Amino acid sequence: MNEDMKKDMKKFNLFSLLLICLLTFTFYSTTNAQQEAMPDNQPKRKNKRFSTRPNLYHELELTPEQRQQIKRVHQNRKPLMNEAQRRVSEAMRNLDRAVYADSIKEGEIAERLKDLQAAQSEVANLRAYTELEVRKILTPEQLIKFRELRRRFNEKRENHENRRKSTTDHSDSNAPGSDFNKPHRKNPND
């Protein structure tokens, strides 16, 4: 994988993460608003999945008008994003077929790789412009707060990845398959 492709994949992953966060927070706030609108005699359900994540609408103190604007942005982009993600999946399947075909055709593989990169670029483009539209809705104070929340979220994610990586790096050497990459000795007494 060349450096430009690695950079593109990192950007793609960052945009994906940001969009997922925004959609998650939008879902959470909608769920929370529905629960708050429930009569007091009905039990409120606690959604464990989102209990540790901040509610961006609440944290950023978005006005009802801002919430509606963000909702419209996501509604308008959703069909485009679904189609773009469908093209990425299709391009990945086509690349996989070309790589594992009975006969190797490097030209075909290169074409399928270009198709995948174009489809991924389209998804990244849509995500970036969706984020830009949402950013335009925020006030300067909300943007500062959002950047801080995003920084803390990324910090937590990196810490989690580092902990996960360190546990896999120090995995049990007696685990099944742990000697897969170890050189085998002919004589056990060596």
Please give a structural write-up.
There is one protein chain. This protein is mainly α and 190 residues long. The protein has helices spanning 3-36, 56-59, 64-99, 106-137, 140-169. The radius of gyration is 23 Å and the shape is extended. Mean pLDDT is 77; it is low at 33-52 and 180-185.
Short synopsis of the structure:
By secondary structure, the chain is mainly α. Helix content is 72%, strand content 0%.
User: Distance N terminus to C terminus?
Assistant: 39 Å
Number of helices: 5
Largest sheet: none
What is the average of the pLDDT values? 77
The radius of gyration is 23 Å
Q: In which range does the helix fraction lie?
A: over 70%
Write down how many β-strands occur, each being a DSSP E stretch of 2 or more residues: 0
The succession of helices and strands, N to C, reads: HHHHH
Beta-strand share of residues: under 5%
The global form is extended
Instruction: Give the low-pLDDT segments.
Output: 33-52, 180-185
SS class: mainly alpha
Spell out the blueprint of helices and strands.
Blueprint: H1 3-36, H2 56-59, H3 64-99, H4 106-137, H5 140-169
Helix pairs in contact: 1-4, 3-4
Notable characteristics:
single chain
